[in-house]
Every structure is written in C-alpha cells, then in structure tokens.
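Hi P.,

Sorry for the delay on this. The queue was packed all week, but I finally got your sequence through. Input first:
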Amino acid sequence: MSVQNKTILITGASKGIGRSLALLLASKRANLSLVARSEIELLSLKAEIEVLGSKAEIFVGSVGDESFVKETVASTLKSFGKIDSVVNNAGFGVFKQAADILTEEWDSIYETNVKGTFLFCREAIPHMKLEGEGHIINVASDVAKRVFDGGSLYCSSKYAQDAFSMALRKEVRKDGIKVSVVYSGLVDTYFHSKVEGDPHQSEYLTSQDMANAISYILEAPKHVVIDELMIHPMSQDY
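Then the structure:
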C-alpha cells in the first residue's frame, strides 16, 4: 500500500532512525508531521524534505508533555486533514545499577519511552476510528523481551511500552487500526556512547536499515498487519 499522500507523524524525528525514516517516506511523497526537541535539526530536515517534493510540518517539544502532544495532533489535522500513521520512535536510555538510579532519571525515561507513546496513541486514535483505518508503529527494542545487568530502568520502560502496545492492538483491531511493534537490536545511532559512524559500531544495523523495515510495515497491504518485527545485525546473537 503506497504511502503517497498519507500523513505520517514521527516522534524523535530529528536524528537517527526518525530522520532516516522521514527522508525515506518523503522520497515516496508522504506528508510528514515531525516531532523532536531540536528546532535547528528539524528545520534542516524540513528543508531536505521539501527539496524532495514532499510536505512537512515540524513541532518542537517533549513527547511527555500532554499539552504539546494535543497541540501537535490538532495542528497536524489542521494542516493535512487526517493522520494515517503514528510512528512512536522517540526514546532514550540510562544504564546503571538500580541502587544508583536517580528518581528524576526514572521519571524522565518513563515520560519519554512510555508516556509519550501513550499520549500520541490516545490523541490520534479517535481520529483514526472516524476514518475506519490507521496504523500505530511503536519502536521498542529487543530488551522489551529480555533483560541485562544495568538495564533495569531501560528494560522495564520497554517492557511497559510493549505491554501497552499489545493490549492496544486488541482494543483497536476491530476499528480497522493496526498496531505494530518493532524490536531492534544494536543500531548505529547517537543512542550509544559512541557517535554514529564510529568504527566500533560498523557491524550494527544502520538507521537506514531501520527506516527500510518500518517503511515495509507501513506499506503492507490493507488486509495485512505485521504485529511484531524483531530485527538484529548478524553480528549480534539474540
């Protein structure tokens, strides 16, 4: 199913997976609503998208801010008339022993990784129900299915995001709305301690690999839903 003229909202769009996905979808003539914290990076991305001949609106703020999310969804609907898909890609991690985690770190991780996903789903779904179709794609992690030493905070946030997604899928399937979850392994992005492109990450998945996978999910035929997609680099044993 073509994404041409479809309106797709992407969080965490200014860099990494979100940026690669935005540019890929722009090349396919999708209308894009782009959310991130960095106005400079979003403006640069918007300019690139317009060169490709697609339309983009940018929204600068925190995905955990309820008022911001409501305003973003309302403005997207005003600009494009509908929201066909939401890609909840924004997320980050803090990795340390549980006894060393600060309360503000816990709150911040959950606000972005879990609450942000919830808020954008809650605000977009009523409009999708009116259309009788829609697609939510939540970018989780393989640690939504496993845990590791030092990952209690990040893993638990991804488990929560995944559980929310699975229950939501059961709620909205009857309304024609798809819910997909992408579980990625190691990806060469700013997420890690080393910069994107560092030689130590040369065997990781690339942002483009992830963008291609998400685009594949979005372009599945209307009668097909890819509920879950687990993706790893060959160098990573899962």
